[in-house]
Every structure is written in structure tokens, then in C-alpha cells.
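Hello,

Following up on my earlier ticket. Below are the two sequence lines again, exactly as submitted.
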Amino acid sequence: MIEEGKPLFLQIAEQIEDSILDGSLTEEAQAPSTNELAAFYRINPATAAKGVTMLTDKGVLYKRRGIGMFVAAGAKDILLGERRAAFAERYIDPLLAEARTLGLDASDLAALLSERAARTEGTPA
Amino acid sequence: MTAVIEVQDLTKTYKDKNALDRVTLSLEPGAIYGLLGRNGAGKTTLMSILTAQNFETSGTVRVFGEHPFENARVLNRTCFVRESQKYPDDATPRHAFAAARLFFPNWDQALADELIGEFQVPLKQRIKKLSRGQLSAVGVIIGLASRAEITFFDEPYLGLDAVARQIFYDRLLEDYAEHPRTVILSSHLIDEVANLIEKVIVIDDGRIILNEDTDAVRDRAVTVIGDAAKVDAWASGRDVLHRDALGNVASVTVLGRLSAAERAELADAGLDLAPVSLQQLVIRLSQKAGTPAETEEVR
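Thanks for your patience. The regenerated structure is below:
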């Protein structure tokens, strides 16, 4: 769940973002508290707090005084925008690098992509 | 924020050896610090001096702004859980907890009772007869239940099995979250405590070689693996911590954070990147500092 070589607060923020993106944490729902995150991931509460602060700064979470942190309206759109912008670098670039090693060119990849996509669409998860 | 511990140019000399060599540190209140380093690096000496169980040769030591020696204003706000804590011959855990309750103003008996149950400490047995793990549990319980404003744990886990250590880590985090205080945790099990500590201090041969936010250190070093010629060309001019080779494949660990462009460049060159754990980083930094292996812990 937690990987090496990457700041923990970023990973905590990403876990919360993932929950918002996959719909398990809906807009206006209460987000887990710093102490809950610390206990669940077994990390320092200050580190968990830093991840939460990052999300409030981005406008993804907001604080209701005395109650806790909540998912902001429009949070999912903010995250979708961010993730789409990073998609090519995160997924396409490594894909191209490996394809090059294997001697596959862009048209081979395109053919493979549509073939695999057709297959997964044929068998709904 | 006012520092709870301030140490300047602290040197401790035994005969002709410097156990601590001009150590300068400032510790903030309300954080969990990891004090890491090899045996004999000076961890226990430093903690002993901060709790007035040992004396500096030179330099300034301030705990809550005062020198700790015979200073009750400082000492009942600090708790030092030693790896080799000595108790009177006929003392039982019950005696040890009763004494701690008298000494520490913030002592929480309910927490102590819960922990005694969780660690299954036999209250009426003489401490001398306890197993190593049970002895460690007594120390851990005193350290947690004292709720001292500064708590030192010096390798508190000796003899504790994996389950008991997890109980300690979980209870430390839980209680710290509710009652924030300064905790200094000295440990060899770096991977086990890496996620618990907010700040990391690495001491090697009596000197501080790292003192930073743990999270800032997580991507501080990186290992690059691939064709030896390419790897070496890339690494030349960088701060190399370690190099391994297998045939014509080399693995080089370098200090320094990589930019996205540098990562892309490496990927294009067909070189792989591997993260460096805190434990690996500490090992590499200590080796680089060039300490000869110590066989005896200097006290």
C-alpha cells in the first residue's frame, strides 16, 4: 500500500484522491480524519495532516469547523483534470519505451490497444 | 516554535575517543524523532546527557531552556526508557509502575493498566526473573503512560516479538495523536519505524550526518540500474553513495533528487530507477562517512 522513494504525504493525498475518483468518497461526504488516516496507514499523524492540507490547498477538501474535513463540490472535476494532464507522462511514455525495446511501433500499439479495449468491453467487469 | 532541546557544540570524550563530536541540535516540541545510527555511534551517550545520567565534556545543553543536571523542573517532564534499565534486586513490575506514578505528573494509570494487559506483564514477579521481552515491555509501558513532555526510547523493543512491537508502534501513534509530545525513538529497525517518525536524525561516529523531515528524505537518493558503461557515465560527477556490479550490469546509488526531465532521460537510455528506503539511505550514508566497524558500545 505504501511504497518507498515517494513522500508519504503525497501517497496519503493520492489514496484520498483515488477514493474520490472511483466514487467511494462522494462530494460533500466526510473525509477520514488525520488521526484515522495515521492509525490506518500506521504513519505519523503530522505526515497524514500534511497530505490532508495539500488537498485543502487544492480545493479538493474543505474544513467544517469542529466537525471535520469534507469533500468539496467540484473536487472530482479538479482531480480528473489533473490526472488527465498527467496521464501521458505516467502511462503512455513508459508504454512507448517498452514498445520500442520490443520493436513495436505506434501503429502496432494502436492495433493492440483497440484489440484489448474491444475484449475488455466485451466482458464487463 | 521554541525548541524543547537545544544542544550546541556538545562534545563527550572518553579517554582519547570522542563519543560525541561537536553535536549541534535543536528539537521542536510535539514531533516524533528517529535517532538512528550504528552501535557506538553516540545515540545512548546523547540521550544520557540530555537526561542528566551522563555529563558533557564541553558544549551547551538546554532542555526546556535549562541544564538538566539535578533539575527537577526538567527531569520530571522527561522520561528516558533505557535499553538496559536497572531496577532494585527485589523490585517487581508493580513497584516499578508505582514509582513511575509518583514521579511523573502526567502519569495515566488507566493507560498503564491497559498496556499491562496487552503486553501480559506479570505484575508480581521479580523483575530480575522476567524475560528480556517482558523487561522491555515494562520500559515501554512506563514510557507511554508517563506522558512526559519529552520521552526517550532507547531501542525499546529488545526481546519483543513482532506482535508486541506492533502493539508498541500502534499505541505510540494512538497516544501521541491524542497527547502530542516530543518523542525520541532510537532504533536499529529502521524500516519498522520509518513511517512513524516525522524527523530523522542520523548520528555516525559521534557526529550528526543527517537531520531532516523524514518525508523530505524519502526521495533524496535513488538507485540507477542498467548497462555498466551507461550507468557509470551518468553517475560521474554525482554524489555516489554506493556501487554494485553484476557482470556488465551496474547498480549505483546516488544522493540527490531527480527532476522529471532526468527521469525521462534515464528511461530513454534504458536505465531503471529503484527507490532507496530510509534504512538503505542510512546504511549508505554511514558507510560513506567512513566509520570503522565498532565492536563495543561506548557508554
